[in-house]
Amino acid sequence: MAQIVRLTTRQQRSGQEEAAQAAEQLSLLSEELLKHLPGEARLALSKITHALQKAARPDTTEGLWPGGFTMLSRMQTAAIWDAIRALPSDDRPNQVRHAFDLVLLNLRQDTGEVLLTRDQLAEEIDCAPRSVSTIMGTLEKMGVIRRERRKIEGVRGPGMAVYFINPHVAWNGSLDVRKAQAAETRPPMQLELLQGGAS
Fold it and tell me: Which residues form the HTH crp-type domain (predicted)?
């Protein structure tokens, strides 16, 4: 049986090689030098290196893990599942769990942004768009996600709701960026309770 091979042009190969070389040069920066850089500069370097590595190996997400993968904290995820199961029926635990699973499957690399809109979430969960706000609000109260408003040019109002995963729960992308985000974010409420009980 013939094997299908993705062809790359000479220009694409050249770009990949240049990206790989640039990423390698950045990796040669000493820990001593990086230690003296401001946090924003270290974060920017990490993002640049990650982008270059991705450009150098554009097909890696189609390999062992088609579509890429998300890193999960087992303890936080288990605590969230338990907390969702414990929700009263009025809070729609099945739909909240479905929303949580969709969040984990649709994260943007290096920001933790959920890549589904409210309407897309509603379609996947099979509920009204207005119900998504309540469902995601439940996850927000639990500390699993946070919500931001993104202004749309020419449209009045507070803007479109954009959701981000708590980096203590899951992450997709550079670990350096995840550490920086986690340092500025509180763990989910359930994990704080678990940690408090363990001490």
Answer: 104-153
